[in-house]
């Protein structure tokens, strides 16, 4: 509505201290005026201020003598007292809660604005600075936040002009449009309009007239006045209404202004009118008593129920009644008596009734006790809770991601801002995010943790995949060369059957590295380690078989030796099958007893999830690697022993080099695998597979391919037997 009638709730800027102590280095002046105590008050760590309409008649009468222009009704408005007590009731509830502002007590100071703008401004200054304290005139002055339950002017939505203003009631922008549609609905196209001469009335009516014009509604007149205007102006407004031809009138007015108009209508009633009222007065129980408003229509705030509020209103403690001037005056006005100790109580011998304090509010029907239409009252209740939640969340607002922690042995007002821990957000308190969530950069929201694994579309995954496919293609190319020259001496001399089996196993070694790339699944986890273990054992078994063939062939050249009959083609095949079967058995037991499975690892990094394959059984994994290592060492030793055999093309020499590279790669793999984090663990394993596979293909097959393709003259039996000197190798 407007500032003089709004019960504006404000947060005083200190823990119950004078807010002016928070500002220094500003231009100062002295706030002058009469010293007025609050109508209702309670001390607390945080103090919330409230501004009422006219409630205390003796204060307002005194101000009228001081040339402060007031309007003429002097009796108390108990409806406004109900608003104030709703704020008191809400603060009492909040102070008894352990989840909202624990260990902090809210207080309140509620003043009477006497329904006058000058007094409302005076109250606002007292909220911001305190009575007889320095006023801060400085652009850096902290603004006092205010929350209104009834200030509906659309102008207050301008956040650049009113950045610290909030409300729990809708803007008049919506009410004006609804009133225009209501008028159109009933087919009223010729109407009059009267408004309060204030921001509430002027801006609200302007919005209505604009909406009415769009609906095709004609306005006969639009008049305005304010309660402090001269009586002559009020009379002119009343005359316009009486003499008009329209019988529908839209009144965008405050209850106080409308009462002034009623005084004038009481002298000379207008013709029968259909009143359409704004929310400010159409739901006011006082207005419903006047016959002139019979049949008035308008929009109202939704009715609500506040549990326990009626009992709170009816049961005023005797101690509070005796201490509060406001409650004393209310009691006297309600029961037509005088409290002991008041000025009028001395007239008891003249027949004046003395209040006992035991009078029963259940026996009277006044707006104060009427809780059947809690509309605006509920908005006061909500506004109080809104401020409480704001205080709760702003205790450590200058220390982001922190919460208040009281200092041991010091008052509640003394506190430290303690940072929230890792994985916690600061909403009202430090709240831990769920297991798979992590705070955002502002630490005000929990977001799902990013999931990390070696993906196909990232650079590292693409490089490793290309290397794997390139290695497989290289093996295929070597196999094609060997197949085309399968009858040549160099291919036949190197056991072509084992050579092709070795090439096949090397192809599988290159391709098995692809199973390590991509999002781990149950099947991929089981496949990647077992495929790797079996294919590498097959590969090393073939190399071991070729090494044994070389050794046996040399021993066969000794007169009387028949060793080759014990290591012919059948025995070579059985050797490969036996060695590979052992690894296949280990892998089978691994898959049956404790297979690998996908796991979300949140232990290594707190802020992200590592999606990896858990080994299931670490012993089985190291058994697979150990068996491969055992065969590799055996192969290396045998190849090393055969490296100086007399053939011109000694294959054992190249096998020695390949096994040396193989063993070096896997020896360095172990510490790198253990220490690599996240997806780099998988990358290290792929690198070891590719490096050892490239070592085998390059050392064993490239020299032979070089001779086949570029030195065909050396691809003869005489040269291989060492009867022709060689400069190529």
UniProtKB/TrEMBL annotation:
It comes from the Eukaryota. Gene3D superfamilies: 3.40.50.2300. Residues 1-25 form the signal peptide. GO terms for cellular component: plasma membrane. Keywords: Cell membrane, G-protein coupled receptor, Glycoprotein, Membrane, Receptor, Signal, Transducer, Transmembrane, Transmembrane helix. GO terms for molecular function: G protein-coupled receptor activity. It is found in: Cell membrane. Its main location: membrane. The keyword Nucleotidyltransferase does not apply. The chain crosses the membrane at residues 459-483, 498-518, 530-554, 574-593, 620-642, 654-674, 680-702. It is a multi-pass membrane protein. The keyword Zinc does not apply. Residues 460-724 form the G-protein coupled receptors family 3 profile domain. GO terms for biological process: sensory perception of taste. Belongs to the G-protein coupled receptor 3 family. TAS1R subfamily. PANTHER family: C-FAMILY ODORANT RECEPTOR OLFCD2-RELATED (PTHR24061:SF528), CALCIUM-SENSING RECEPTOR-RELATED (PTHR24061). This is G-protein coupled receptors family 3 profile domain-containing protein. The lineage of its organism: Eukaryota, Metazoa, Chordata, Craniata, Vertebrata. The gene is GRM7.
């Amino acid at each position: 509505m407007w500032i003089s009638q709004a019960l504006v709730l404000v947060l005083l800027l200190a823990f119950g201290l004078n807010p002016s102590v928070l500002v220094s280095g500003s231009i100062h002046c002295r706030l002058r005026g009469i010293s007025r105590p609050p109508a209702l008050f309670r001390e607390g760590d945080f103090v919330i201020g409230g501004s009422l309409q006219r409630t205390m008649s003796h204060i307002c009468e005194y101000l009228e003598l001081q040339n402060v222009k007031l309007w003429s009704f002097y009796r108390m408005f108990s409806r406004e007292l109900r608003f104030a007590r709703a704020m008191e009731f809400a603060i009492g509830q909040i102070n008894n809660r352990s989840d909202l502002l624990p260990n902090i007590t809210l207080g309140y100071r509620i003043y009477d604005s006497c329904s006058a703008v000058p007094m409302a401004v005076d109250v606002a200054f007292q909220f911001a600075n305190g009575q007889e304290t320095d006023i801060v005139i400085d652009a850096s002055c902290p603004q006092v936040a205010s929350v209104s339950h009834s200030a509906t002017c659309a102008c207050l939505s301008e956040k650049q002009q009113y950045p610290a203003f909030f409300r729990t009631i809708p803007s008049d922008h919506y009410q004006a449009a609804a009133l225009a549609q209501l008028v159109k609905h009933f087919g009223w196209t010729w109407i009059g309009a009267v408004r309060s001469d204030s921001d509430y009335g002027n801006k609200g009516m302007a919005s209505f007239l604009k909406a009415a014009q769009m609906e095709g509604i004609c306005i006969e007149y639009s008049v305005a006045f304010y309660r402090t205007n001269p009586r002559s102006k009020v009379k002119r407004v009343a005359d316009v209404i009486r003499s008009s031809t329209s019988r529908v009138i839209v009144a965008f007015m405050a209850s106080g202004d409308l009462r002034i108009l009623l005084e004038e209508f009481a002298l000379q009633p207008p013709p029968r009118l259909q009143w359409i009222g704004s929310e400010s007065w159409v739901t006011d129980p006082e207005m419903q008593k006047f016959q002139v408003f019979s049949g008035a229509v308008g929009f109202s705030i939704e009715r609500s129920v506040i549990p326990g509020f009626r009992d709170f209103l009816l049961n005023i403690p005797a101690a509070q009644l005796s201490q509060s001037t406001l409650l004393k005056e209310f009691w006297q006005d309600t029961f037509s008596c005088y409290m002991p100790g008041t000025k009028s109580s001395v007239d008891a011998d003249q027949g004046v009734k003395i209040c006992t304090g035991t009078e029963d509010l259940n026996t009277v029907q006044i707006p104060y006790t009427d809780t059947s239409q809690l509309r605006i009252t509920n908005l006061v209740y909500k506004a109080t809770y809104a401020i409480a939640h704001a205080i709760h969340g702003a205790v450590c607002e200058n220390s982001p991601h922190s919460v208040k922690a009281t200092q041991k042995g010091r008052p509640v007002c003394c506190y430290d801002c303690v940072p929230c821990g890792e994985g916690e957000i600061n909403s009202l308190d430090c709240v831990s995010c769920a297991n798979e969530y992590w705070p955002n950069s502002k630490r005000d929201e929990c977001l799902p943790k990013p999931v990390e694994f070696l993906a196909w579309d990232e650079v590292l995954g693409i490089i490793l995949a290309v290397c794997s496919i390139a290695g497989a293609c290289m093996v295929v190319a070597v196999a094609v060369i060997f197949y085309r020259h399968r009858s040549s001496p160099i291919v036949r001399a190197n056991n072509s059957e084992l050579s092709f089996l070795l090439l096949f196993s090397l192809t599988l070694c290159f391709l098995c590295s692809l199973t390590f790339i991509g999002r781990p699944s149950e099947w991929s986890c089981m496949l990647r380690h077992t495929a790797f273990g079996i294919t590498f054992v097959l590969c090393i078994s073939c190399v071991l078989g070729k090494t044994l063939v070389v050794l046996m062939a040399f021993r066969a050249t000794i007169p009387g030796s028949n060793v080759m009959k014990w290591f012919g083609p059948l025995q070579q095949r059985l050797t490969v099958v036996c060695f590979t079967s052992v690894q296949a058995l280990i892998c089978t037991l691994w898959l049956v007893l404790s297979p690998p499975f996908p796991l979300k690892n949140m232990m290594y990094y707190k802020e992200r999830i590592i999606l990896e394959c858990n080994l299931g059984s670490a012993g089985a994994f190291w058994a697979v690697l150990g068996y491969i290592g055992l065969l590799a060492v055996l192969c290396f030793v045998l190849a090393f022993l055969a490296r100086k055999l007399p053939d011109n093309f000694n294959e054992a020499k190249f096998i020695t080099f390949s096994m040396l590279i193989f063993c070096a790669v896997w020896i360095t793999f172990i510490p790198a695998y253990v220490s690599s984090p996240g997806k780099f663990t998988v990358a290290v394993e792929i690198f070891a597979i590719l490096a050892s596979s490239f070592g085998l293909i390059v050392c064993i097959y490239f020299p032979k391919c070089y001779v086949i393709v570029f030195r065909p003259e050396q691809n003869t039996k005489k040269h291989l037997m060492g009867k022709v000197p060689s400069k190529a190798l």
